[in-house]
Write a structure and sequence with these properties.
single chain; 25% helix; three-stranded antiparallel β-sheet; alpha+beta
């Protein structure tokens, strides 16, 4: 049985475990780039951002690379 997608619907993609939502078309969160380079290096901030990205992947919000 198939249904027409409607705004607000969410599905879980079995292959990646990522949650995909429908808002005038299927949308998925894109994984931001891990910080690198730049003139000022803040190791703690980079570590925190990396941890946040990993947590979002574990929750199925972002897909694995």
């Amino acid at each position: 049985m198939y249904i027409t997608p409607q705004n607000g619907m969410r599905i879980m993609e079995p292959a990646t475990g990522q949650t995909i939502f429908y808002a005038n078309g299927w949308q998925r969160a894109e994984t931001p780039a891990i910080p690198s380079g730049g003139q000022i290096v803040d190791a703690e901030a980079r570590q925190a951002i990396d941890h946040l990205i990993q947590s979002l992947r574990s929750a199925g919000i972002l897909s694995a690379p």
